[in-house]
Write a structure and sequence with these properties.
Blueprint (H helix, E strand, L loop, with lengths): L4 H19 L6 H8 L3 H7 L3 H24 L5 H18 L6 H8 L5 H24 L8 H22 L3 H13 L1
Helix pairs in contact: 1-2, 1-4, 4-5, 4-7, 5-7, 5-8, 5-9, 6-7, 7-8, 8-9
Amino acid sequence: MIITETTVREQIVATADRLFYAQGYNLTGINQIVEEAGVAKASLYYHFPSKEDLCVAYLQRRAEKWSAKLQKFLTGTNDPRECIIKCFECRSEYLIENNYSGCSYIRIIAEMPQRSKKINQRAILNKEGQRRFFIEKVKELKNTSGISTVDLANIIFLLFDGSTMQSQVYRDIAPVKNAIKALKVLI
């Protein structure tokens, strides 16, 4: 195999992805990433001037993984109500596959008593993307709830994030199942 800068960068991000998600940001050191990625420390710093920059790449990778999984899960589903419900079902599957480890963004932010601006911006970008997904789907609904589109989407988003966090706490998908029951009443 020919080793390129792209493969070195990808190896570093893949290793950080595994370690940050399994151990957390604070418990994962640069030396461990370098050792497990099998790269020189200079290579890591060539691609990522700081651990923060590597964390931003990790969070971007997690967003891409989730988005790809969700798009695959939603293939063939056109009904907006069904898309919203399936998003929650996809989250259930994701939680089980990841041993109920929860949302990587919330986990990273919770670890950082003093917020890194770069990491915080990446987390907000992701969360706003998730919220926009729900806003778009609610716009497509025949909303007869009497609640504004944005307010209804925010409630759904809160159910999504809240049930994800509760599933992490209880190590069970019951909170997501309960959120789906609430969704069926709301929409």
